[in-house]
Design brief:
Blueprint: E1 23-34, E2 37-48, E3 52-56, H1 63-69, E4 80-89, E5 92-93, H2 101-107, E6 108-111, H3 122-132, H4 138-151, H5 155-158, H6 171-184, E7 189-193, H7 201-214, E8 219-223, H8 227-233, E9 236-241, E10 244-250, H9 251-256, H10 261-267
Parallel strand pairs: 3-8, 3-9, 6-7, 7-8
Antiparallel strand pairs: 1-2, 1-4, 4-5, 9-10
Helix pairs in contact: 3-4, 3-6, 4-6, 6-7
Length: about 270
């Protein structure tokens, strides 16, 4: 009777980690304060171009503070200041005193947690900002308004009532109107601070689908408390805790193969 040859035990093949693409926005050793209280500690992070990067972590971890640093919205808070470090877009430090903050906020648009349409018509919600940037010709305004509403998957729902108030739209439609307003000025980066937190599941799904379409044209950074949403919409995820960046990897690796035990505990729901 032939003897069986014992085969060596098979070992699990490690899952290769996705390589990190080149950064479009570079955050370099950023320390940020509100008065004497430090909110961000030595943050270094490269945000890839035309991808969706999610910032996750428990409340108070610094993710929204970091988001607001990227277009200097924190300048509006009297006691807010950068202690040290840089944020570079196209190799330009956006905190250089020579940087035009209005121009920066055109390049780095923002969609807020609560939709905030202007108390104007749907058309004027988009055209108003374009006029501020020097576009006056009606035919050009008409073209950009339609293009922006189509880009925000809203045109078919509002094309017959463009001169109705934007405040008369549903919550989900208002949020997409705000996205249309943001993309109308052709930014490089779109920041989204909990854009779906006030929306019902159907409206949330529409915004998430829209995010997937928009990343072909824009670099997107989204803050979310919803880890399922981060897993659905983002390509890369950064986990923050107590003002520190704990881990930054592809979203697949963060949720299935995290390096840091704190990350694993958070994404598995054991804390936060």
């Amino acid at each position: 009777m032939p003897t069986e040859t014992l085969k060596p035990a098979e070992t699990a093949t490690p899952i290769p980690r996705a390589p990190m693409p080149p950064a479009f926005v570079e955050i370099d050793r950023l320390n940020f304060f509100y008065g004497e209280k430090q909110a961000l500690y030595d943050i270094s992070l490269g945000i890839p171009e035309k991808q969706v990067t999610a910032l996750i972590g428990p409340s108070g971890c610094g993710k929204t503070t970091l988001l607001r640093c990227l277009n200097r919205m924190n300048d509006l808070v009297d006691v807010a200041r950068i202690g040290s470090g840089e944020i570079r877009i196209d190799d330009i430090n956006i905190y250089d005193p020579r940087v035009d903050v209005i121009e920066l906020r055109k390049r780095v648009g923002m969609v807020f947690q609560k939709s905030n349409p202007f108390p104007k018509s749907i058309y004027e919600n988009i055209a108003y900002g374009l006029r501020l940037h020097g576009i006056k010709q009606k035919s050009q305004l008409d073209e950009i308004v339609e293009k922006s509403l189509r880009g925000a998957a809203l045109w078919d729902e509002v094309k017959d009532r463009l001169h109705d108030s934007g405040l008369g739209l549903s919550g989900g439609q208002q949020q997409r109107l705000c996205i249309a307003r943001t993309i109308a000025v052709e930014p490089d980066v779109i920041l989204m601070d909990e854009p779906c937190s006030a929306l019902d599941p159907l409206a949330t799904a529409k915004v998430e689908d829209l995010i997937q379409e928009l990343k072909a044209r824009f670099t997107i950074v989204i803050v979310t408390h919803n880890m399922q949403q981060a897993a659905r919409v983002s390509d890369y995820t950064a986990f923050f805790y107590l003002g520190k960046l704990i881990e930054f990897q592809s979203t697949r690796d963060i949720f299935t193969n995290p390096k840091n035990p704190q990350t694993e505990a958070y994404v598995s729901g054991r804390f936060g």
